Amino acid sequence: MQQGKKPTRAQKERIAYFNLNPDNWLVTKNNDGMLLLKHRYTEQTREIPS
Fold this sequence. Notes:
- Helices cover 18% and strands 36% of the residues.
- The protein has one helix spanning 9-17, and strands at 25-31, 34-39, 45-49.
- Strand 2 (34-39) and strand 3 form a beta hairpin.
């Protein structure tokens, strides 16, 4: 799996919109209107619309 990167401010706002804590999530992919997120500690993945 790819390494995640810190989300930008706009991405943080989008992550928070889905009731997730932006400090705990890293962005692994941002394409086709979807954000693929990876949790910093548990390695859980989640996909949300961007």
